[in-house]
C-alpha cells in the first residue's frame, strides 16, 4: 500500500475511521471566535449560533478525503451513526497571513450562521460545526449522488432528456427561491456547488461566500467564480439576488447544450467578453 499524503489525513485531534484513535479528544470547542459579521442581527447572534451547533467530537469519526479547495479539505465522516461530509478549513500559522486568517474566520462564521437558518429539501442540511486551534470544521449531511459538474462530465456533451433537464432545473430553482426568501444571496452558483442525494434530488451547497442581501454591497470583497459571475459583480456595482439568477442561467445553458458560453476562453477572458458584450458565433 502506498503511503498516504498528509492531506488525506484528518487534522490532529480528530478520530479516524481507519484506525482507533489514542488521542484525548475535547468534546467541545475550547472557545468560539468572537469575530463579528459586518453588521445586522448576525453580529449579536453568531457566537450563540456557533455554540448551539457545536458537535460532540467524541462522536465524530473521519474517513477518506474526497475533495479539496484552496483552503479546505472535505472528508467522509460518521457523526452519531449517520454519514456526514466534514469540511476542514485550515488557517495560516500565527502571523503568517493575518488578512487571510481573518477572511477565513469570517467566512466560516458566516457559513455556519447562514446554514443554521436554512431548512429546505433543495438546500444542504447543516449537522454541526467545531473549532480547534488553526482549524475550523463544518459538518453537513453527506450527499452520495455527486456533483452536477461530475454528472455533466460523464455525459461527454450528450444531450440530456428534457424531462431530466426540467427536474434538475426545478430543484435548483426551488432551492434558490427559498434561499432568496430568507434574504440570502449565494454568490457562487455553479455546477460544482449543486450536489445530488441518493434519490437524485439536487441541492444547493457551499455557502462560504454567501451573504445577507441587504449587506452584500457593504462587504467590499470579490467572491464567486469568474466564469459564472454576473457582470455587476465584475464591475463592483450594487447587486442583489439577481446575480444568482444570472449564474443559474449559465447552469441551465450548460444543462441544455452541454457547453458554456465562451467555453474556449480562460475565465478572465470570458469575464471580459461578458462585460463588453462580445459576440461569439457557436
TrEMBL record:
Entry-linked CDD domains: STKc_MAP3K-like (cd13999)
Protein name listed in UniProt: Protein kinase domain-containing protein
Pfam families: Pkinase (PF00069)
InterPro entries reported in the protein's UniProt record: Kinase-like_dom_sf (IPR011009), Prot_kinase_dom (IPR000719), Ser-Thr/Tyr_kinase_cat_dom (IPR001245), Ser/Thr_kinase_AS (IPR008271), Ser_Thr_protein_kinase (IPR050167)
Gene3D superfamilies according to UniProt: Phosphorylase Kinase, domain 1, Transferase(Phosphotransferase) domain 1
Top-level taxon: Eukaryota
Domain Protein kinase, residue spans: 60-282
GO molecular function: ATP binding; protein kinase activity
Lineage, opening ranks: Eukaryota, Viridiplantae, Streptophyta, Embryophyta, Tracheophyta
Cited SUPFAM superfamilies: Protein kinase-like (PK-like)
Amino acid at each position: 500500500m502506498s503511503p498516504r499524503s498528509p492531506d488525506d489525513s484528518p487534522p490532529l485531534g480528530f478520530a479516524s475511521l481507519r484506525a482507533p484513535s489514542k488521542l484525548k479528544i475535547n468534546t467541545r470547542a475550547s472557545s468560539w471566535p468572537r469575530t463579528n459579521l459586518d453588521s445586522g442581527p448576525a453580529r449579536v447572534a453568531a457566537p450563540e449560533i456557533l455554540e448551539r451547533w457545536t458537535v460532540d467530537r467524541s462522536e465524530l469519526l473521519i474517513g477518506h478525503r474526497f475533495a479539496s479547495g484552496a483552503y479546505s479539505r472535505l472528508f467522509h465522516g460518521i457523526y452519531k451513526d449517520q454519514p456526514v461530509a466534514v469540511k476542514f478549513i485550515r488557517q495560516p500559522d500565527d502571523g503568517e497571513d493575518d488578512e487571510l486568517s481573518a477572511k477565513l474566520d469570517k467566512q466560516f462564521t458566516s457559513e455556519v450562521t447562514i446554514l443554521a437558518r436554512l431548512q429546505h429539501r433543495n438546500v444542504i442540511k447543516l449537522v454541526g460545526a467545531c473549532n480547534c486551534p488553526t482549524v475550523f470544521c463544518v459538518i453537513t449531511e453527506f450527499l452520495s449522488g455527486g456533483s452536477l459538474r461530475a454528472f455533466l462530465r460523464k455525459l461527454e456533451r450528450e444531450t440530456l432528456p428534457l424531462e431530466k433537464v426540467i427536474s434538475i432545473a426545478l430543484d435548483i430553482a426551488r432551492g434558490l427561491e427559498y434561499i432568496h426568501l430568507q434574504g440570502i444571496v449565494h454568490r457562487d452558483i455553479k455546477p460544482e456547488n449543486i450536489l445530488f442525494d441518493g434519490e437524485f434530488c439536487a441541492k444547493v451547497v457551499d455557502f462560504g461566500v454567501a451573504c445577507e442581501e441587504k449587506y452584500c454591497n457593504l462587504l467590499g470583497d470579490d467572491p464567486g467564480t469568474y466564469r459564472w459571475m454576473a457582470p455587476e459583480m465584475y464591475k463592483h456595482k450594487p447587486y442583489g439576488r439577481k446575480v444568482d439568477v444570472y449564474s443559474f442561467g449559465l447552469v441551465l445553458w450548460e444543462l441544455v447544450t452541454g457547453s458554456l458560453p465562451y467555453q474556449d476562453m480562460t475565465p478572465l477572458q470570458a469575464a471580459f467578453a461578458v462585460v463588453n458584450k462580445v459576440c461569439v458565433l457557436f
